[in-house]
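Side project, low priority. Logging it here so it doesn't get lost.
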Amino acid sequence: MSTALRTHLIKPLAVCALAAAALAPVNAYAAPSGAAAPSARPASVVVVTSGQRLDLGHGQWLTLTAAQVCDGSGPTVENCSSVTNGNQGPGTVSLLTSGDTAGTLYRALYLGSGAARITVRAGQQNDTLRLVRLAGDTGYTVGYGWGAPQTTGNVTTTVYNAAGTVLTTL
């Protein structure tokens, strides 16, 4: 095989492998508050403009503004969470879930700065959510991701900083 052909084939494969690694969930336990997580790999962050509709898959979407975070499906707004009204305290995380037998959408809202990774543990499954922010330091971060269909049981949400230290747990 020629060097040009080998390079042509290897580069796309490397890009696919890197993309798959970036989208793969990180399996780690939820470390106790203040402890470092076993994997401090920060999640990728999507930066959106105020009011921009972000497609979450399965017909679901998300929008962020300076005042609230909303999600829904099709033309319908289903949930909005204020980031300014004081119903959620600073340095805390909240979690909304929705779904059906095909899967569960997890949407976490962390009020504070410094979030580099948010994980959700449901049963024995532990997944890293994709992070979404408005440009600049708005004082909050949203994480979202799809998991297995939710069954009964507890769901634990943990927010980590870039060093892997737990900022808060719900």
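Brief comment: DSSP finds one helix and 13 strands in the chain.
Revisit when time allows.
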